[in-house]
Write a structure and sequence with these properties.
With about 180 residues, the protein is of the alpha/beta class. It has one domain: Rossmann fold (3-Layer(aba) Sandwich), CATH 3.40.50.360. Helices cover about 40% and strands about 20% of the residues. The chain is built from eight helices and five strands. It has a five-stranded parallel sheet with strand order 2-1-3-4-5, sandwiched between helices. Helix 1 runs parallel beside helix 8. The two termini are about 10 Å apart. The mean pLDDT is about 95.
Length: about 180
C-alpha cells in the first residue's frame, strides 16, 4: 500500500499513560490503519532545551546552537505532510514541554513556511467548560496561519481530568476517527 501522508505527532504531557497520551495512541492507530506513516515524539521525555533567543539561527541560516533531541524532530518536521499537536491544557494553554519544542521551530521557520502542511490540535482538560481551550485554540490558529499551514481538525476532550474518566468517554473514538479520515 502506498503511504498517504507522513504524519508527525508531537505530544506534551509528562504522563506516559495519561489522558492526552491515550488520545495520541488512538489517533495514531486510526492514521496507521488508513495507510499513513506516523512518527511520534513524546516531548516531555526528550532532551529538548529552551530557545534562548540567541539569534544564531538567523545569522547562520538554520544553525541552532543547541544540540539535543530537537535535531531528530527537525528532520521529520521538515518532511511531514501533517503535524499533530497533542497536549493537556495547562493554565489555559499547552504544556511547557510542548511549547519549548514549538519555540525551537524558530530556527527553521522559513523552511516550514515554504512547505505547506496540514495540522491538528488535540487537547485534554479537567474543566467541563469548553471555553477552557479558547486561548490555546486562538494561539494554535495564529501559529499555523503564520506558518501557512491548514487546520484540518481540533479536538477538545473537556471534563477529562483522569485516564479513568476519559476511557469512559467518546473522546478516544473521536481521536481515532480523526486519524482515520487523514487518507
Ligand atoms: C500544571 C497543570 C495545569 C492545569 N491547568 C488546567 C487548566 O487550566 N484547565 C483545565 O481544565 N485543566 C487543567 N489541568 C488539568 C489537566 O489538563 C488534565 O488533568 C489533563 O487530563 C491532564 O492530561 P495528561 O493526563 O495527558 O497529562 C492542569 C493540570 C496541571 C498539572
Amino acid at each position: 500500500m502506498d503511504i498517504i501522508n507522513n504524519i508527525l505527532i508531537l505530544t506534551g504531557s509528562p504522563h506516559k499513560h495519561g489522558t492526552s497520551s491515550l488520545l495520541a495512541d488512538e489517533f495514531e492507530h486510526g492514521a496507521v490503519r488508513s495507510g499513513n506513516s506516523v512518527k511520534r515524539f513524546d516531548t516531555a521525555f526528550l532532551n529538548i532545551n529552551c530557545c534562548m533567543g540567541c539569534g544564531a539561527c538567523r545569522n547562520n541560516s538554520n544553525f541552532c546552537t543547541k544540540k539535543d533531541d530537537f535535531d531528530d524532530i527537525k528532520n521529520f518536521l521538515l518532511n511531514a505532510d501533517v503535524v499533530v499537536f497533542v497536549t493537556p491544557i495547562y493554565y489555559f494553554s499547552m504544556s511547557a514541554q510542548l511549547k519549548m519544542t514549538i519555540d525551537r521551530f524558530h530556527s527553521i521557520s522559513k523552511e516550514l513556511q515554504k512547505n505547506p502542511k496540514k495540522s491538528l490540535l488535540i487537547m485534554t482538560a479537567a474543566s467541563p467548560d469548553k471555553s477552557v481551550a479558547n486561548a490555546l485554540i486562538l494561539h494554535y490558529k495564529t501559529m499555523i496561519k503564520y506558518l501557512g499551514w491548514e487546520d484540518v481538525g481540533i479536538l477538545l476532550a473537556k471534563d477529562s481530568p483522569t485516564r479513568e474518566k476519559i476511557e469512559q468517554s467518546n473522546y478516544p473514538f473521536q481521536a481515532r476517527k480523526l486519524g482515520e479520515i487523514l487518507a
